[in-house]
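Handout, section 4.2: multi-component inputs.
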Amino acid sequence: MSELIELAWIVAKIVALVVPLFVAVAYMTYAERKVISAMQLRRGPNRVGWHGLLQPIADALKLLMKEVVLPQNANRFLFVLAPMLAIMPALAAWAVLPLGDGIVIADINAGLLYVLAMTSMGVYGIILAGWASNSKYALLGAMRAGAQVVSYEIAMGFALVGVLMAAGSLNMSEIVQAQAGPIWNWFWLPLLPLFVVYWISGVAETNRLPFDVAEGESEIVAGFHVEYSGMAFAIFFLAEYANMILISGLAAVMFLGGWYSPFHGLPVLGPMFDWVPGIIWFCLKICLFLFLYIWFRATFPRYRYDQIMRLGWKVLIPVTVVWLIVVAGMVLTGFGPWF
Amino acid sequence: MIEKVIFYVFAGILLAAALLVITARNPVHSALSLVLVFFTSAALWLMAEAEFLGIALVLVYVGAVMVLFLFVVMMLDINIAVMREGFSRYLPLGALVAVVMVLQMLLVIGAAGVDFSGFAEATNPALSETNNIRMLGNVLYTVYVYPFELAAMVLLLAIIAAIMLTLRRRGGTRHQDINKQVRTTKADRLRMVRMASEQKNEQ
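Output:
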């Protein structure tokens, strides 16, 4: 009986995390349209609700009403399975992410490895969607996306190796606790090259602009999800945005001190901001990264495919390897306030 | 109690998926069943408190190796009818190999005197107290450091050999020199032309 209660409690915690996450995903699309329109001197969605605030709900309803078209000769089972495989890892990885001091569903020792394992599974949804659609555009998009995600995973993994060396732990909460202190105590400063590499790879991992050749409209229509419609398409959309929020959350935990306030431990400013709960700081940090995503999209032109591969393999990976050696030296010498 | 239920559910899925790997008609389905096999065995390892091994299995095999497998299998045009042709002819040989392998496994397990009774208790308090990864790291980089480095060298050698074997420089390809592209300046590409402004009533 006590086991069942424990199980129900875990399920309740998961629901309490996933429901706000979906709301965040819905309003991320709204924020993206609003921010980009502001950058392009437009108004953006402003018809549904006050300043268009109900637009995401209207969009979701519209997609729910639409028919899910199964293409002829598509592999039905895999065609339906692919969107689920795309969204599952994006949600599962949240289990180990500490939202605040002690606010985490599973505080496991191998948290960082678990996150890497989960994010590495996201590529299946893309590849299978492309293959099961039985369409050449979808297959080409899936191949591009697959190769890109697999390549950038390596740079991303190496960048995170630097973090675990600096923190001396794979536990996400301990990684945050290792950064206790004001803003210059966080890992973004000693691991600046890794932070930049992680962020570039994160953008590439989620197939977002300027690395969105997976759905290069001008060449391959819409990439791997060209044959999907209605709710199946919406799930791919959800997965993309959930992944963006996940990558932002990870960046906040790894490099921006998770739930700590930027004034933590300072003489006057520290106590002034002590009343703000850690989860607010964490969300603010996520919002910073999400804004960067949108900003990139509005600013940069799309990379050419071979340029993406070159950047990943010949620039980012060597940078991370060199900086790992530097980090090892810093850890050995106990450099600065970080180690 | 609940752990036992979870164990048997995962074990059942594992066996069913393993069977599907060899019986599925579609090679992509086979590859995906293999992914499921890896995933469920990782879950079983997690239950045996081998968290590092379990997660590494997902990370390496599911996240990297099987993705490449899928790539290859999707590109292949496999004719299943042709593949099934020799089934009855090769069946005796295959059965023989299978029997030999099972015997070998039984011998190894018998010789090592592996005691399976420990698996009955899903949680071993002595193990869960310590950090799995730290323990592995301590052993790998002290006692087994030379075999470990040697294994790494062998893998590196295999990578280089595989690349050298498949690398061929074909003539006549339009190769792009990225360094050249990066180093171009405005002066190389752009020519400013001065034009007289158009007259309004030009006839």
